[in-house]
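Review the following:
>
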Amino acid sequence: MGHHTQYIHPDLKLSRFDDKFYKADVLFEQHLLVWIISGETKIVQGDQTHWFGAGDTLLFPRNQLVTVINYPKDGLPHQSAVMHLTPQRLTDFYAKNRVDIQPDPAPVFRTFGRHPLLKSCLASLIPYFELKEALSEGIVSLKIEEAITILRSIDASIDPVLANFNEPGKINLADFMEQHYQFNMPMDKFGYLTGRSLTTFKRDFKKTFQTTPQKWLTNKRLELAHYQIKEKKRRPSDVYLEVGFENLSHFGHAFKKRFGYAPGSASQQEP
């Protein structure tokens, strides 16, 4: 049971989830190329929800927030092959290939469906996980360069995404928080993504919202959950993870304290 990760190299791993679901608000420091072997993945970004299944390939750009929920399916665990596209490897690749590009300042996650070239590239990694020894650097470099070359051949707009090595700069705090409050992560990460130290983030937050980050986040998440349950007629068990809560019991307690009734009763309340 639980989560198992097998590395054959720091940049190549096989990830497996055996539980009924696994949810994480992710912020990767490197680009990740993920091929789903079995199970299902739900991705929530803002007000958009996307579902992916076995055979799909996804690219998660670095420093971009996204909620990922992995589910087993058809009696099989959720399993995926993951390739890290590190800034150093990408810098070397673009320098070697003499490509001059302008980085994309706001990349978003991408899906390539069940593209046969990406499937062939990532599926060819699976036998290496059966080896007892670590994979040689030479083979790893070849496989990662193959993946980058395929991405560039099937998506003409991918270069500005892969070549984005910039760190987040200072941005409008209110706009960012209004768009990303459902993500559950440490305050220093919110600060990092808005171009601030933790101390500066808390100070600017208090000045902007006249309250603490945690109180504001809890209230915003409860308001979104109330809307989803009451207006969209969704079940509390389908909502609490998406809005930023980690525990259904804690969500129910906080919801009742805020609105005066349990989440399951929200849809029956008068306007």
Q: What stands out?
A: The longest strand covers residues 31-38. Residues 170 and 196 are 6 Å apart (CA to CA). The domain at 3-162 is CATH 2.60.120.810 (Jelly Rolls).
